[in-house]
Amino acid sequence: MELPQQGRAVDDVIADLSAKRDGDVRWQDGRAFGMVYSGGPSVHEVAERAATLYLHENALNTKAFPSLGQIQSEVVRWTAGLLHGPDTAAGFLTSGGTESIQCAVLAARERGRKERGIHAGEIVVAESAHAAFHKSAHMYDMPIHTTPVRDDWTVDVDAMAAAVNDRTVLVVGSAPQYPQGVVDPIPAIAELAASVGANCHVDACIGGFVLPFAEMLGRDVPVWDFRVEGVHSISADIHKLGYAPKGVSVIVHRTKELRRYQTWIFDGWLGGFYGSPNLQGTRSGLPMATAWAVMQHLGVEGYVDLTRQTLENADRMRAGINAIDGLRVLGDGDYHLVAMAADPESPVSIDVFALADVLLERGWYHDRQGPPDSLHSTVSNSNTGVIDDYVRDLRAAVVEVTGTTTDDRSTSYSTVE
Ligand SMILES: *Cc1c(COP(=O)(O)O)cnc(C)c1O
Prior knowledge:
Radius of gyration: 22 Å
Structural class: alpha/beta
Strand order of the largest sheet: 1-7-6-5-4-2-3
CATH superfamily of the largest domain: Type I PLP-dependent aspartate aminotransferase-like (Major domain)
Mean pLDDT: 97
Helix content: 25-40%
Number of domains: 2
Largest sheet: 7 strands, mixed
Strand content: 5-15%
CATH class of the largest domain: Alpha Beta
Oligomer: single chain
Number of strands: 13
CATH topology of the largest domain: Aspartate Aminotransferase, domain 2
Distance between the termini: 17 Å
Shape: globular
Low-confidence stretches: none
Bound molecules: pyridoxal-5'-phosphate
């Protein structure tokens, strides 16, 4: 396995690369419930053309590429507007939800240090909060306290209240949380954070480009965004249900002063002044430009249409699952995330991980999660037109696996190698 001594022809290289994809999940057929979110042919086209324009550009230095500075501030402004940010709201684009969260955690730690003199600020999250908060705590060496969720899978604010202390710098809520798709009680979480002088971050990585449009569609959405007074920052991923290709998310702070806590500047290097908005150095312009292009192409009306479709798909999926004896949907998530588990009250005994194996043979891809053992779906516009086929295959798969189990209990949100 050595790099060839002699370079190869373009067509050869591309043919090999295409062949490599044969074993990959067939998201193009709408059979993946997560990971790739398709806004349809014209959204692909505008993203691909923007990507070609910005394939080589570098946002490391917006003096060299002022267009990328403009692209960033416009996308952040539009996003802040959707999240009802005040005029003072300020943010940055990042490479994804994890990086947005890392920036929010860093901002909370630095604010604790500078305003409250707390060196080792602590984080309080529920067990439903994304693993990226634990990764951040690990990277920044911050103690993190994890509290249980209630029976409806939302944050138990009383349990959080017992976990905060005078070193707490960050309390987290999610809109919605990933595992069961329910929206946490953000006003109560923000109030708790305020009571100890901590930041309140709302993780809307998966919901930031759904909930605003669900509300416009007249769905019942609890207030969760900057309209809640005590919310300091929000993360929202354009590369999920914002329908841009991978590599772009937004972190928005309520004010520029709060945003300043996530930036880093260094003036002691022979290479010159080093100003850093997020965790990256050299920074691809491609995802930033595709986000700009996709958002402009869709506009609010385009997003409302995609959200209507997404929620119809998810509602249809939930109804299909709940109608099958032996299965149930966890939580009352009204939105685009669906967790499917065995129904403990049914005499039909289903191992959902064995079920996932059979569904995969038919091309349907779910993440496996737990506890409890469940199959996770992020439903999107990608799945339009396939839900009836899915429910039919699910019904047949249930018959096939009833009473059987698989030894493989591993879950698989993400992988190391
Ligand atoms: C996807 C997700 C993240 C992490 O985002 P990445 O883009 O995968 O880094 C964080 N929080 C929630 C709720 C998510 O769904």
